[in-house]
Amino acid sequence: MREKENNKSMRRKGRKSNYDKFPTTNKEPKEGDIWLVKFPYITKGGMEKLRPAVIVENRGYEIKVRKITSNEKRGKKISENIKTDRVSYLTKEYAVVGRDKLYRKIGRI
């Protein structure tokens, strides 16, 4: 009985996040597209952070992106949802990520 419990706990420790189960997309990212991107910095749980970002430049494998945030001080206003009273801003900082870090296209500016 104890061995079964230990095996279950061992499996949980090595578990990956849900988005790691699925392969990255084969769609070609274009300038102005909004994608969910796995950013290289790590959260406390040990997972990469998945955030929306706008494609600024596509140079083959390296893709230049700007993050989308809800923090007013971090960037320029790009959209506002009246129903939810939520505003999105485009940050000033750029990040270069690999094509393998793109998760899913979610929209276009």
**In total, how many domains does the architecture comprise?**
1
CATH class identity: Mainly Beta
Number of alpha- plus pi-helical segments: 1
Task: Give the strand order of the largest sheet, numbering strands 1, 2, ... along the chain.
Answer: 4-5-3-2-1-6
Mean pLDDT: 77
User: Would you give the CATH topology?
Assistant: SH3 type barrels
Largest sheet: 6 strands, antiparallel
- Termini Cα gap: 56 Å
Report the strand count.
6
Task: Characterise the protein shown here.
It is a single chain. By secondary structure, this protein is mainly beta. The protein has a single domain, classed as SH3 type barrels (Roll). 11% of the residues lie in helices and 52% in strands. It has one helix spanning 2-13, and strands at 33-42, 48-59, 62-69, 75-81, 86-98, 102-108. It has a six-stranded antiparallel sheet, with no helix packed on it. Strand 1 and strand 2 (48-59) form a beta hairpin. The protein is globular.
